[in-house]
Specification:
Elements lengths: L1 E6 L4 E6 L4 H10 L6 E5 L5 H12 L3 E4 L5 E4 L7 E2 L1 H4 L9 H8 L1 E5 L12 H9 L3 E5 L2 E5 L7 E3 L5 H11 L5 E5 L5 H12 L3 E3 L5 E5 L7 E4 L4 H14 L1 E6 L7 H9 L3 E4 L4 E5 L8 E2 L11 H9 L4 E5 L8 H8 L3 E5 L2 E5 L8 E3 L3 H13 L3 E5 L2 H6 L3 H7 L3 E6 L1
Parallel strand pairs: 2-15, 3-14, 6-7, 10-11, 18-19, 22-23
Antiparallel strand pairs: 1-23, 1-24, 3-5, 4-5, 7-9, 8-9, 11-13, 12-13, 15-17, 16-17, 19-21, 20-21
Helix pairs in contact: 1-2, 1-7, 4-6, 5-6, 6-7, 8-10, 8-12, 10-12, 11-12
The structure holds uridine-diphosphate-N-acetylglucosamine.
The site of uridine-diphosphate-N-acetylglucosamine has 22 residues, from helix 1, helix 5 and helix 6.
Length: about 425
């Protein structure tokens, strides 16, 4: 199994390019199921979650081609099965995103229930209730969600909570439904907007994306389109936390600072000097960061996907910070590992109190989920001596060659195989 070896204490200097957003690319790839024409996507990151999605689409009979230049084309003209199997869904919960498109275009879908996950219970009840409101007949049979509908019918759907993939699934279902669908309490994440923009290029009639009320007029069919996936705001935010922790000055190219308001504000509060253009972010840091409180929230609030990385920065900050995780019930798996590096953190339910220490000391730590892995890398860059981060297959799900990009910035980091 691969691990990362990091020798901390080297400030970061240089320039890296941010990859396309994983969480935008996943639903966008699934949207290719909505038409028999070819959908061509550019800026698709090379990640394990993307390979899993392409494998899943391939198993459904979709032709997928990955080109050398970060582009992918998808043609779903001969879909041969309507079933997403457990073996793939269990490795990637986002596989549930094929449910809406398959049901909308083919009138039937069987998708394995994802089951539990490291960061919390994460049910998909809102996806199911929403599709039922659009007229689907849905049963849970032998661990599968089995959905049928001759043609979905538009309706007003109000989810109990804001759900990102739930909104995406329902939007993809509603574009081919008969009549008008209104999604209330919809997610406003940039990745939802990006999906809506692709769907509109495919001929869908969608208004209000980016607000909590999305209005969709169903159409009879969609056609092919070309689309560039937005830059990954979480990858960019993670590199900014890295320079915050290690010090130095970096330039991020192909970034989307307009999607990163809450993260940039917190990092400035922590003491980073940040300058942005339309597609770049320059950041520098000298001295110790200042402790910053944060409370995770749906977009445009502070992203739960940035909580672990900013916590890593807080471990070496001047002062004490209070962190409240409001989205997932078990998203503090990185805390015990950060403590192994010398951090002072107390957890009480959804709240973590971090008392900044002057220095962390390198140790062997274990990645437990995707963003937790990034937080351990960030802490390792700041720690004295040698840190090994094990189980980095979690990191590879969502970061494109993170160690390679960090090496471009001068970090002393390498991948080793044990
Ligand atoms: C997406 C992101 C993930 C991010 C999360 C929150 C993708 C592929 N993943 O995950 O990186 O951390 O948004 O920003 O885009 N919930 C239910 N029932 C449902 C759906 C959700 O109870 O049917 C709950 C969840 O357990 C969670 C909250 O709603 O507590 C928000 O989850 P949701 O927005 O759905 O997360 P994902 O879409 O799975």
């Amino acid at each position: 199994m691969d691990k990362l070896r990091i020798i901390g204490g080297t400030p970061l200097h240089g320039e890296v390019s941010i990859s396309g957003a994983k969480n935008a690319a996943l639903p966008i790839l699934c949207a290719g199921l909505l038409t028999a024409d070819t959908v061509t996507l550019t800026n698709v990151p090379k990640l394990n979650d993307i390979s899993t999605t392409l494998k899943l689409l391939g198993q459904l009979g979709v032709k997928t081609t990955r080109h050398s230049d970060d582009s992918v084309s998808i043609t779903a003209d001969e879909v041969s099965t309507l079933e997403a199997p457990y073996e793939l869904v269990k490795t990637m919960r986002a596989s549930i995103l094929v449910l809406g498109p398959l049901l909308a275009r083919f009138g039937e879908a069987r998708v394995s229930l994802p089951g539990g996950c490291a960061i919390g219970q994460r049910p998909v009840d809102q996806h199911i209730q929403g599709l039922a409101a659009l007229g689907a007949d849905i049963k849970i049979e032998h661990g599968f969600v089995v959905a049928r509908a001759k043609r979905l019918k538009g309706a007003v759907v109000r989810t109990d909570m804001v759900t990102v993939t739930g909104t995406e699934n329902l939007m993809m279902a509603a574009v081919l439904a008969e009549g008008q669908t209104i999604l209330e309490n919809a997610a406003r994440e940039p990745e939802v907007i990006d999906l809506a923009e692709l769907l509109i290029k495919m001929g869908a009639n969608i208004k209000g994306h980016g607000t909590d009320r999305i209005v969709i007029e169903g159409v009879d069919r969609l056609h092919g389109a070309q689309h560039r996936v937005i830059p990954d705001r979480i990858e960019a935010g993670s590199f900014l936390c890295a320079v915050g922790a290690a010090g130095g000055e970096i330039m991020l190219r192909n970034a989307a600072p307009e999607t990163m308001g809450a993260t940039l504000a917190k990092l400035q509060e922590a003491g980073l000097q940040i300058t942005c253009g339309s597609d770049w972010i320059q950041a520098s840091m000298s001295g110790r960061p200042k402790a910053v409180d944060m409370r995770t929230h749906e977009y445009p609030g502070f992203a739960t996907d940035m909580q672990a990385q900013l916590m890593a920065l807080n471990t070496i900050a001047e002062g004490t910070s209070v962190i409240v995780e409001t989205i997932f019930e078990n998203r503090y798996m990185h805390v015990q590992e950060l403590i192994r590096l010398g951090a002072h953190i107390d957890i009480d339910g959804h709240t973590a109190v971090v008392r900044g220490v002057k220095t962390l000391s390198g140790a062997t730590v274990m990645a437990t989920d995707l963003r937790a892995s990034a937080s351990l890398v960030i802490a390792g860059l700041a720690a004295e001596g040698e840190t090994f981060v094990e189980r980095i297959y979690h990191l590879d799900r969502g970061y494109e060659r993170m160690e390679h990009k960090l090496r471009l910035l001068g970090a002393n980091i390498e991948r080793t195989t044990s």
